[in-house]
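stage 2 :: seqdesign
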């Protein structure tokens, strides 16, 4: 499968970077994990909003050509606007320099991995997860967005974005692998639960849906935003609330969300006696697939008019 490096296609085993690459040296960039359904990207607008806000936060310039349409066309060079894919779009600061960069212009790389399904599927058996307490994520002391045009990202500095420097998540994934778990929840510097290794967390108590606020150090997940919107449509009360481990033990349901895997329900947490249910997770997933289908149909109609 080829890769798209700055608009040109290369074999995925061909070296394209030098030792001076700033993403390699400093993690000086960010990425998006995007799911394509039958060649379409129904939630791409959410990925673009987060990417654009993240580039602004890193003070990466966005040239005139660097638009959502441009990036969608670059993705289509790999997918031909057909099939089901996991897309990784990585953007970093080009040029050399030490900590002080020589330029703030971006380079990009797009990779595509095929997926078997054109819809989200709930995991048949619930996840068994643990808690990773080392390498805590930073919480935010800034209640107001430094980027008013991106008011869904109230956190500053940069923990809401998917950064190329993601060592806490790598270490947490290594921890869950060593213990034979499906995933791990990460704590923040206040000792509260923030997110999983590659997912946001939601829990249900007495029919109400809860998730940690973005100021708790979690990534501003695109599916997190979608689930909150779906809950509003279904008239399910959804609350952003800080989460301590003892409060999690009393929850009725627990699930993890991300843009590629959708909604996955958790059966048990290591060290807790109880088992979590999945009734609301099933309802949310059904509505999510319906919204995905509607978004795909709407996008197809727009493309036909072009």
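stage 2 :: out
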């Amino acid at each position: 499968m080829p890769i798209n490096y700055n608009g040109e296609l290369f074999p995925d085993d061909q070296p394209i970077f030098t030792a001076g690459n700033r993403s390699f040296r400093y993690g000086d960039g960010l990425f998006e994990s995007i799911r394509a359904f039958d060649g379409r990207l129904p939630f791409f607008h959410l990925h673009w909003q987060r990417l654009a806000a993240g580039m602004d936060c890193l003070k990466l310039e966005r040239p005139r050509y660097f638009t959502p349409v441009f990036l969608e066309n670059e993705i289509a060079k790999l997918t031909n606007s057909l099939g089901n894919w996991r897309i990784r779009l990585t953007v970093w600061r080009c040029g050399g320099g030490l900590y002080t960069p020589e330029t703030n212009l971006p380079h990009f790389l797009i990779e595509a991995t095929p997926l078997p399904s054109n819809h989200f599927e709930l995991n048949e058996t619930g996840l068994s997860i643990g808690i990773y307490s080392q390498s805590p994520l930073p919480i935010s002391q800034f209640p107001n967005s430094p980027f008013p045009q991106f008011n869904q990202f109230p956190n500053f500095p940069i923990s809401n974005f998917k950064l190329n420097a993601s060592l806490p998540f790598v270490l947490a994934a290594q921890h869950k692998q060593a213990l034979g778990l499906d995933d791990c929840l990460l704590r923040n510097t206040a000792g509260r639960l923030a997110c999983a290794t590659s997912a946001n967390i939601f829990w249900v108590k007495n029919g109400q849906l809860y998730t940690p606020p973005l100021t708790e150090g979690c990534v501003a997940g695109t599916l997190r935003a979608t689930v909150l919107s779906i809950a509003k449509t279904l008239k399910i009360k959804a609350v952003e609330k800080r989460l301590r481990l003892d409060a999690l033990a009393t929850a009725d349901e627990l699930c993890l969300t991300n843009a590629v895997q959708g909604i996955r329900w958790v059966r048990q947490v290591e060290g807790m006696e109880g088992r979590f249910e999945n009734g609301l997770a099933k309802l949310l997933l059904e509505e999510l697939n319906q919204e995905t289908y509607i978004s795909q149909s709407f996008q197809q109609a727009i493309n036909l008019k072009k």
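stage 3 :: structure notes
- The helical segments are 22-26, 44-57, 68-79, 167-179, 222-233, 245-248, 279-305.
- The chain has a mean pLDDT of 92.
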